[in-house]
Amino acid sequence: MGLPSKGVGGNGIASEFGDLTGMTRQEVDRFLKELDAKVKITVGGYVEYKFPDRSKVIIRPDGEVVRTPAPIYASDGSRTNRGLRLDKQGRLMTTLDQLGNPMPETHNTGETVRDE
Question: Do 87 and 93 contact (CB within 8 A), yes or no?
Answer without folding.
Answer: yes
